[in-house]
## 1
Amino acid sequence: MKTNVLGYPRIGAKRELKKVSERYWKGAATKTELVEMGKQLKLSNWRLMQQAGIDLIPSNDFSFYDQVLDATLTYGCIPARYQKIKEKESKLDLYFAMARGLQNNEFDVTAMEMTKWFDTNYHYLVPEFTANQKFELFSLKPINEFKEALAHNITTKPVVLSPVTYLLLGKEKEEGFNKIDLLDDLLPVFYKLIEGLVDAGATHIQIDEPCLALDITDKDREAIKKLYKELASKFSSLKIILTSYFDCYGDNLETVLQLPVHALHLDLVRCSLQLDDVLDAANFKNDKILSLGLIDGRNIWKTNFEDTIATVKKVESKIGIDKVWLATSCSLLHSPYDLDLEQNEETLPASVKQWLAFAKQKVDELVTIKKLVTGDTSKEVAAKLLNNNRAHSTKKESSVIHNAAVKARVSLLTANDSERNAEFLTRQKIQKDQLKLPAYPTTTIGSFPQTKEVRSWRSKLKKKELSLDAYNELIKQEIEETIRFQEKIGLDVLVHGECERNDMVEYFGEKLEGFAISSFGWVQSYGSRAVKPPILFGDVSRPSAITVKWSAYAQSLSSKFVKGMLTGPITILQWSFVRNDQARSTTCKQIALAIRDEVVDLEQAGIQVIQVDEPAIREGLPLRKEYWSTYLNWAVESFKIATSGVADKTQIHTHMCYSEFNDIIEHITSLDADVITIETSRSKMDLLNVFVDFKYPNEIGPGVYDIHSPRVPTLLEIEELLVKASKLLPTDNIWVNPDCGLKTRDWPETKAALENLVAAAKTMRSKLEKAY
């Protein structure tokens, strides 16, 4: 029996990689410093797992930005617009240019498109393919990192993204071909990579094939059969670990069981039922090892040892203990580093902490379960089992989890609670008469840059180095400066800038009952961007108003309308570590009622435009289409519960970013938001087509400024995007805005970009007036 970790967090326990990366991008750190930090983080992870007793330690799971982008460099799939950078700059700087764009005196290129990694809050860089796409072994990163670990006497299991999944995750940039047809050109490069790993001494290789958790075509399945058949033929002594996660194999199971691989990984956290499907399958061969993904890689609750041991014993009785591996369900990339760092009982009480396990603790759980299954009778192991049982027992009985009033309120919900008073066209006329906005109204998505100074105020307040009164005065000054800037450049609907907020979900988690907050529970969202999901452990309620004070203050400063800014219930749910003892739909409705109270209070305070962001609605979609309807029904209902308590004159906005809406546009429409803003700049408005084809009836703000790239879009770029949008949508329904919030940007580039945005909108209005 082996223990198998599919991947480990890479940003550093205290975000060390983030800090050095951002300094490097600004020219404040050298390439040597950046690379050295990467080496330190990798070695620390490898040693932690080695010392804990993990048998199959992953390598090539580390990344300076994104593992799919790593594969793009490995396979040499460099889009044409980066060729000059490829010729002149280092591979690392080429890599960052592809991830973030590059704008200087010599180069001005946009970044690659970014989207969600399956149904997680992690984002990957989308590969780009042309009909005559050429591949080469451009980067030896997987081989170099295996050798790097070996130099420290640590033999690892390289993790490699399958060429089939890689192609399916990408996008055809030309018409007339199917990206999976590129497999024959990619396979020689892939085999060269595998040969290099074998020559370096690798005996086990984890091939990630998460596309097997999706509804794929027969053609895709044939491509998978071809890949693994040729792998087995070319590398007969190599032990291939076929790894999929996030859902069942489903319709792909029959194909999977026929593949000539050494071990088959099952995500038994997301799909426990597939274990019986595998064990009972007529074509399951007992010579195949089963890697049982029993440790939840995506959530922070302790594993139930007794339940897990029972599952392992069940498998052992059918195929033998030598054919069983114990594993994390997926990479621990989605888990925080170390629970031992959490020492603040004010935000994370011991009563809640006792139920948790972060990445380091999950590694220990994996090893402990192996010891329990294999008959270790030591006092240390017995004590761990006793503590585990005690934690699960107290969780079932805990009074801090259950709130009878909250449960009763959910049970009393009716259909009327999720409907506005009038249909959209009626509301639209009322709102246009009320707001009197110009054509192509301009706004932003909510947040403005948070400087080190602003962040230091929160830090000093927490440390009690700054009084609450002094802090509030500083926030007032920052809000007023933000309002005055927006008025100066001519934005039409303003925002207060959210300078008082740390994160769009964590901020609400701090204010709502049923949540706890960690100090170091960071997980990577994309690149250097890390989030600290709140821990949703109990029934949710809103003890008092959360945003009304600062929104009302901002509105008092201006004659223009200031948006109230809220995070929606689905996004709060998706971007939290959610309790696992209750249906997610029930928890989401609890959050929706809390947000509804806030929306109503904002309206009563005189806020006439309220934005309820739902960037995670697409992310929450089950990977299998057969389960979509159930999820979408309660997700849409939850949003409407949150937003339907206001009068028709109050304009409800929502925002969604980095999502493909093609398959769910009907449900997006059912949200019935008066205005929806979406990310479209990187796709050059391609994401807008689905709204056009569906004849989306409500107002829409297609993003014209990519805020995830440190470059200023030109006036001409924004105008071209608006012209394209105007050919697709009714002019009366178009808003002008950035792709997303501006929190991570610097003020100089933000000011320049927004000035161009406003100027472009004015140009479009001028053209419209001339046309009439």
## 2
Amino acid sequence: MLTSTSMPPARRITRSAAPAAPRVTPLGLAHHADAPLPGREEIVGRLLDICRAAASAPVVALLGPSGSGRSALLARLRARVEAHHLRPVQLRITREEHDVAHLAARLADELGKDPREAVRVPLTRLLAQHTEQHGPLVVIVDDAQRIAPGCLAELARMVNPQNCHRVTFVCAFRTPAAGAPAELARLRDAGLVHEERLRPLDESAMRALLTDDLQAEPAPQLVRAVRRNSRGLPAFAHALLDGYREAGCLRIVDQRVCPVGGRGPAVRITHPLFAGLSELGSPCWPVLKALAVLHPLRGNVPELIARATDLPEHQVLEALKALRATGVLTGEWRFRVPALGALLTTCLGPYERRRVSELAVLALWNGAATCADPEYLAERLATAGRLVDPNRAAAELVQLSGRTPPERGDLADHWGRAAARLCTESGQRAEVLHRHAVTSALHMRFESAAESADEVLRDHPQQLSPDSAQELRIVRLVAAAGTGALGELVPERSPSTVVTRAAGLCLLGRWAQAHDELVEDLPLWSSSESTNGMFGRVLLDSAAAVLGRSRWSGSARGRGTTADVLRILTRALTLFGGLREPAQGAQVAAERAVHFGHAGRWDEALEHARSGLATAAAWGGTPGHTALFRQMADIFVARGQLQRARTIIAEAREQHLLLPHLLAIPEAELESTTGATDRARAHLTSALRAADADGVLIGTDELLRALVELETRCGDHAAAREHAARLEQVAARLDDSAARRNDLLGRVLVHGDTAAAAEAIELAESRQRPCELARTLATVGGSAAGSGTMLRTAYELFGELDALIPRARLRLLMRERKVTVPGRGTTVAENERLLATLIAEGLTNAQLATILGTSEKGIEGRLTRLFQRAGFRSRAELATALLHGDFSVEPT
């Protein structure tokens, strides 16, 4: 997990005398010569070649906007030049240079000569003398845009190859820069300048930059967000990562760094990114800070900035034009790089943030300005506080927080808290806190949900209807389960706590007790369409489904807040499909992960799964995450990432999850894959005993089907028949399509039932889950009722999923059955990729031989060939290359 530190208070915007002509200096970040430069190494190589070859162009121009990494590239070039035994001299132009004489004096000083000598001796002779004595010279000039254009032309003519053939000037220019582009174009046409432009980093280079900065692999959504907001400029990318760390917005899940929350990054005012800007003074610096808050508006933004900073509007316009001329802003007073606007907001002090936010809110309310971003008004209302109409602000904040998407849950939490602070009347505060508790629970911000629910139940009970009070009690229970406060889940049994107590029992996994108490006290809660009755029916349905008993015949539907609480409760109990029914209105990342996993979109499933677990690590999860952990483990096992599967299962075992026996399925598959069939059998039978002890029936059909498959492979047909017989009874009680499919597969394996085989395939096709269909076809195809066509279809489906382990098993089976395996080149490449993956997972040669269906000696031969072809000397090197994405195998 990545942690952050607290931020110091930002300085206030102050008014001071404005300079006649605002001068803007570039942004800057510290850099190191040995730091990686993703996306820039080719440019460094080209510049080095020019310096070593004494090319015809005496001046090399390196062009790029602020933050593009010019200084970092020059530092890397200097190190490379020294490594090739060339003499580098570096000059940084800190102010405007107007003549060659001044540059010559500085250069002479850097060369260890008396600067006055540069006045007596022409620069060309000075450089020629030095190169004759010491060899080729590379003069590196940073911030060369400060050199006067005429001076640059004179310099280029003086150091042309005829006069100084062993000297190369490498000059870095910040763009845009007045005069420089035209002058450079003329020099380029004259053959005196070689130009290199620093382009924004592409996605691959940005991923490499983030990996180096974080020392861990970034999640794809983090790469996309940083690249989008930094415009691909390295300095801004590094600053954003600093801001995410400072704000506590990063978590490591499954070896990936994932962003959490929707609030922006935050950095200190002393951050190097602001080094050039904060020294500007008035008007540029205060104007920039105010603009950081106001730039999303459309309207007379300069007037609002003038009111916020107490500066004359004409001075504000001069500052904005100067900032636009240097590339900080665009033509519409927008930040050219979005990250700068987001990061600058942390430089404002508390009052100035409230004041500028007040001006923005009033402008939006009175129609003087508009904004396309629906979140902007809410954030400004939350910041302005009581500087604007508190009643109107509270009402709008509650409305806006209720429309916040799942990935922006911390904003909904923040806005709901702000709305509550604006309330003075007891009834209004109770209503706002009630809504905040529900919204926070929907977004899995369980600590916030619990705090608001507790406050209303404790301090405002007289303001609550019986239905509202029951909603809050359910929210409070789910929040307690999400934060691990399990001791708070079960109240004492009484006529008024029947449903609440049953909810707590279900969240603890005590399904039978919850079911029996609900049935026993049925008259106390089922006689009306009250909220209590709706929750009772959901709980009874859930418990009945888990226990394999007849379900309640009624339906539970609610409106408004009740409907949201029903979603919260259902989400906590239904395990995102673990109860065979899809989650209604499912929006959170964990639910999407299971949905995409079933749909065969495994890469997307893993991306959402990591995001869901990162959210849970930050704010809490639900007991219903069992299916999420299982989905990840299933995918990892299928793709040969066995250690990652083991890790995710171990993490799941440490948490309070409902129906934990479902985790035994991937656990047993993991052990069976490496040939540990006894351990696989032990996992399945232990899980079956635990489910029996709790009276839980759901999921036992999967355990029994797995046992039938295991015993069939091991040749214990008597045990397989016994499990199949029990599986038939369980499927009859559960009465759903998943259990029916498992029962049919049991019959196919034990009895070779061709009718059952056809029905199982038809049923799997109707469920539209590619992996489930592939497994069904593979199971049936490998049985006495199967065919080669089934095996080939399963093989193709597993290929689309990149399921390496099932594909390897099927290849062995297909060869045994004399079924042609398509694509020999693809097969060889896939075998090598699987072998490399398993090596990275730390498997022994014996385990590799079991998985790949060969001998240990055969594995040794394959490893030798793989190492020779890929150029690796050890397993450790191969594992490292695979981890960093530096290993790939192309079909032959």
